[in-house]
């Protein structure tokens, strides 16, 4: 299982993701720039994940869920250049507001490996 931490990215800007999302919703240019940088990094992480695992679904949680509306379009634009277009075409991006989603996903992978 691979994880990408929005909080570690946003921590570089000394702000919690929820604060940046709130500011972006108020048309704060700096907050939107931070999210633009984030979508670039998230797209790179997603490319690596898809090359390694050919995932059919990615579950997004944490601050990523709250800010996705600000960078979804740019993320999809960046993924259009993915070498295996069939992977991207079938990829589903789902959202979870459960703060335990990372551990639940890891547990599901462990159970799946046992069967």
Q: What spatial form do the alpha-carbon principal axes imply?
A: flat
Percentage of residues in DSSP E strands: 5-15%
- Helical segment tally? 6
H-E order: HHHEHHEH
Going by helix content, strand content and strand pairing, the class is mainly alpha
Percentage of residues assigned to helices: 55-70%
The pLDDT mean sits at 79
Number of β-strand runs: 2
Backbone CA Rg:
15 Å
Strand order of the largest sheet: 1-2
| Residue windows where pLDDT falls under 50 for at least 5 positions | none
Instruction: Sketch the major β-sheet.
Output: 2 strands, parallel
Determine the oligomeric state from the structure. single chain
- Distance from first to last alpha carbon: 17 Å
Q: What does this protein look like?
A:
The protein is built from six helices and two strands, in the order αααβααβα. α2 packs across α3, α2 crosses α4 and α3 packs across α4. It has a two-stranded parallel sheet with strand order 1-2. Helix content is 67%, strand content 7%. It is mainly alpha-helical and 115 residues long. The radius of gyration is 15 Å and the shape is flat.
């Amino acid at each position: 299982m691979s994880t990408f931490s929005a909080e570690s990215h946003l921590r570089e800007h000394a702000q919690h993701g929820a604060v940046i999302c709130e500011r972006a919703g108020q048309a704060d240019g700096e907050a939107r720039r931070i999210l633009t940088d984030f979508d670039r990094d998230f797209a790179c992480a997603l490319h690596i994940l898809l090359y390694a695992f050919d995932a059919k679904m990615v579950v997004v949680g944490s601050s990523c869920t709250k800010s996705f509306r600000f960078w979804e379009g740019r993320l999809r634009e960046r993924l259009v250049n993915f070498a295996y277009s069939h992977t991207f075409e079938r990829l589903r991006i789902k959202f979870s507001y459960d703060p335990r989603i990372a551990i639940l996903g890891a547990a599901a992978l462990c159970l799946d490996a046992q069967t």
